[in-house]
User: Fold this.
Amino acid sequence: MSSLKPVSRILAGAAAIGLLMAGPASAKVEGDTIVLGSAISLTGKYATNGIHAQNGYEIAVARINEMGGVKVGGKAYKLEVVYYDDESTPARGAQLAERLIKQDGIQFMLGPYSSGLTKAIAPVTEKYKIPMVEAEGASRSLFTQGYKYLFAVLSTSEQYLASAIDLAAELAEKNGKKPSDIKIAMAFENDPFSLDVRAGVMADAKKYDMKIVIDDKLPRDLSDMSATLTKAKALKPDLLIVSGHSKGAATAVRQINEMKIDVPMIAMTHCEAAKVTDKFGAGADDILCSTQWAETLSYEDEYFGTAADFHEKFKNTYEGYTTVPYQSAQAAAAVMVWKDAFERADSFDIKKVRDAIAATDMRTFYGPIKFSEAGNNIAKPMVLRQIQDGKYNVVAPSKWASHPVNFPRKAP
Assistant:
């Protein structure tokens, strides 16, 4: 349950009652309220992270509203978000984006969850020249299409586990081995995000001449990776890498423990979002988790204070969180980009607002945000956290580290 007052409308069907079409050159404004729209995964396989993202949107909307809202043309406006449930299905997401724009008159968008859904929706927003600030689609291929209305606050996906390869090389040398001696086992979901993570891992492994001994696809439903783990038992890799969003992370940690997989180093995406420490306790210890953001980083802003302050406020607002997923932090940052852009444009003219977003150069509790011409954030690094006694501690890159890395991982 949330202690936030409702600041959104969740729409399940075609009846967007009370929403009127806005003129093509002006943003969607109802009285003193600026209305943003988002198709988001509230059901289906991405629901866990979709809800994390929605919570991030909502906490930022509430905070901005309570601090005076958005100032445009000498008047203060409140923010509100209208959501549709895309059911974790790209085709549905595209359909709902069209509905938000054409039927509901939404003239500016927050993104969905996942690269796959963002890939489905971006052509729609581009077609109608509707700016979308997204926080959950990291696939680098999103930013090679020439889109002019897509902007992402997060680091791109090929960077997610590159630091794990660098860390493995560093630890090998520290322990008297060559980085080229390292054997890597990998398993990835067959989706745009995870395949881009794989591409980044492959490029970095090649840099060190590391050996890929297992290169598997996770099953579509992400519920069983025992085939990969059976091979890992036989081939004894030095590093196991897994990327399959929240469901894939939960499956990996569960089966690694059930099958007693003893690999010195394990790195994966989406640990926090999957709440693996809550579900598996000590069974999640020493796993390395890529993250866009951590509460120990030295970022701050006037709305949430420090990264640590946001972490505490979020946990106090929403029940069930011991660690705040970066998906929620970056979703909040996306809303802050909208506020900043509206105020710098000092207008609801779509072109002026789009150009203001493109010129973003801001500091937030989530990190610095500055967009390349392609629309991706070029100002913020990725970091790697390790679960140590149930806590997520930053261990790499070393300049950001709050704790030394535990190596090798304790056998299950």
